[in-house]
Amino acid sequence: MVFNSLHHPPPQSPPIFDATPESLRNDARALAEHTQKVWNEVVNTVEPHSATFANAIEPIIRDENTKSTSMRLLRFYASTSPSKALRDASNAVVTLFTDSEVELFARADMYALVDAVMAQDLPSNGEACDYLEKLHRRFWQNGCGIADTAVKSHFESCQKRLKDLERECNKNLHEEKTGLWLTREDLKGLPASFMSRLKEGEGERKGHFWVATKVPQSNPVMKHAILEATRKKMFYTIQNRMPENAPLFRELVLLRDETARMLGYPNHAALKTSSKMVKNPETVTSLLFEIKDRLVPRGAEYARELLELKRNETAARGAASDQIFLWDQSYYAQMQAEKEKAHGAELSEYFELHTTLAKLLQMFEHMFATCFEIITPEQQRDLSDNRPLIWHEDVLMFAVFDSETECFIGYAYFDFYPREGKYTHVGHYSLQANFLQPDGTRFRASSVLVMNYNKTANRPTLLSLEDVRKLFHEIGHLIHALCTETNYAASQYVDRDFIEAPSLMFEQFFWQARHIKDVSFHYSHISPHYKEIWEASLPEEQRQSAHAMQPEAQLQDDVVAAMAKSSSGWKIVREQLKDVFFSMFDMTIHTPKSHEELEAMNLAEVFNRLKTEIYSLPGGEAIGDGWEWGHGETVFRNVINNYDAGYYGYVLGRLFALEIFKTGFEKDTLSMENGRRYRNMVLRVGGSQPEMKTLTDYLGHSPSTRPYFEYLGIATGDDEHGLV
């Protein structure tokens, strides 16, 4: 399977990645200074009584549009650059931008103009009106409505400290290098291919292997290590790998609550939800408790099944055990999923990274009239006069076109492999936003997927089913960013409680049997070289008959049918238990009845108690380690970042996604007509209008909980309700 070739140069120049630490700092300062200049010109020439959208707001929009072409690029180096000097400089840029924004949106003079426009000159254009309301709210939430000067000064100091805490926590997470030295005996059950990738110790560490807590190494240990002692040790290390973040996270949560109360909100969640689809925390917590009360009994049933597996497995090894713990979950869930074998080959052998990506893009091209064309290293040099268009040699770069009109849509990048200093999880980065330029043409978006798949020297990179699911999910974000067409760069971004819905909807496609089969392709059929690699992986006695034994090129119908069926049941329950747990912890720490209640709250204990309650699995407290046995809250990066009082977006996003899929795609997942309708009604509008309007316009009705509970295998009745 090969990617589409670039048929002609895109009309818009791509971003250049030739920054130096000095240029990053200089460019960031220049952007911040230009914004200050624009704002100063506005307040010096416009009085509140004469303020209009045209003279007070449009200059801000034009500056934001221009700034959006480079600001996120300057910040992007912090997460992906191979150079520590560039990462450090980029982190300094993040500090500069956030400090600048705190100062900008605390300006009473500009707030007076925005407030005057809100009262006098609401634009008839929907996007302009929505933008103005969000802009006004942003000033208010940055303290411009605080009349007491001493309180306002304290508020501004707290805001800057909050940004410092977020940066420090993130820097610690990015630079984290913890792990364990384990023996071959400790790692019994791990495949030879995994062991070959580990660093082996020397001297007194001879016979030991370094296993990092980062997901590509820790996850296989949690899933495959036979010894419970190994799993427990790894689990504890993962949960406690960031002790330096414990005081920082606590201060962060307390400061969020304090600043929200200064603005007149009862808590931080009330502040955050006021500008989202779900307008108050009570609606969120009511939904979460409804789901929790109906989901936890299913989770308890699942835990009992895992315990039975453990009893049988440990008894067979002569190490009988009658209790199951949190650190056992992944191992016995994996054992339960051992049906993920096909024709003697692991299912992952059907999902080689680049072939899977090509097939997946091909599927989306059919649905959404897009065409991804790879830009080779030679073409990159031609497009840029030999200036670098990627930040690392492993990065794949594509130009994206509309397959019907041949219009350029934007640039897409895929950064698949881990390296030192790189963001350690999976994520989507919007480098440049789509917006309408003064001459009426469009500036097109640039979008990046950052993943962390294991890269091997002599074998293809094979994806697990979970890896493929995540790829579907993250490409959903990428497609959303590329297909959005708004007038303003700021309108590209949707509310946090809707942002996951399109990606979670895309996941549903993978669990349709026809798409599992379409995307699958055994790596031994990709090339003669890969066939040789596959043959070399066989036991010696089987190699002579390798040709006869070669697996089918694609998964068979009975296999994909079983896989599609396996997408329901316990796997779904496990995923939703995780999302409900994180959502409830997030809302618990951000909705205290009083600031004093929060000060008295033991965050680690709240985290661990809630986890054991929702998962129906005990942790360290059950073996005498108390309720502070782990500090998982210190590595909860979503809530450290922009998902604070917003992680419920994953639950709500799933609920919305299932409604969208049921309405638009359940009957025919490859309908071009339905795909175009979805692109035009949901993806194209981005955040240019209230997201609930986007959703209800597409669905034709208000979203309800019924499809979600059906998805969980929980009986629904006539009492299922809408959310709005």
TrEMBL record:
Residues 222-712 form the Peptidase M3A/M3B catalytic domain. GO terms for molecular function: metal ion binding; metalloendopeptidase activity. It holds the Pfam family Peptidase_M3. The keyword Hydrolase applies. Keywords: Hydrolase, Metal-binding, Metalloprotease, Protease, Zinc. GO terms for biological process: peptide metabolic process; proteolysis. CDD domains: M3A_TOP (cd06455). Belongs to the peptidase M3 family. This is Peptidase M3A/M3B catalytic domain-containing protein. It comes from Cytospora chrysosperma.
